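re: ur question from earlier - yeah i can do the single chain one, its not a big deal. heres the input i used so u can compare w yours
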Amino acid sequence: RPEFALLQPEEFLTAPGQGALAVQVRAEDTELAELVSRLDDEPTRIETQAERYVLAAMHGGCSIPLGVYARITGDHLTINAMIADIDGKNLIKRSSSSPISQSKACAQKLAEELLEAGGKEILDQIKNSRKDFNS
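and the output i got, formated as tokens:
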């Protein structure tokens, strides 16, 4: 039907790590750690880590308007990211690809590109609006 559309994750970016499940166990509980290690899906872990690397490089937390989607295809990782200002009128999107082994560097490069393209000003605007709100 024409009023419905399938949203592609590369275009409709969600929060970093959205939908990923993490299981944490006590370090001394090796038996349980071994049991839950079977739940690990390496590609998903790598993709989620790359998304979180972008978030960390942007010096952000869960309250900044940042969307990131990482996807492994073959032996390469592609990361799509965007940041928006408070009212959503200014939107900056960037994408970067690298071999999987360079995922952290790829994420950092992408974050730098977002910051240089106006993302730093957006983050400053958000920080200043919170100061105004809290005073």
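Residues 30-134 form a domain with the Double Stranded RNA Binding Domain fold (CATH 3.30.160.40). not sure if urs matches, ping me
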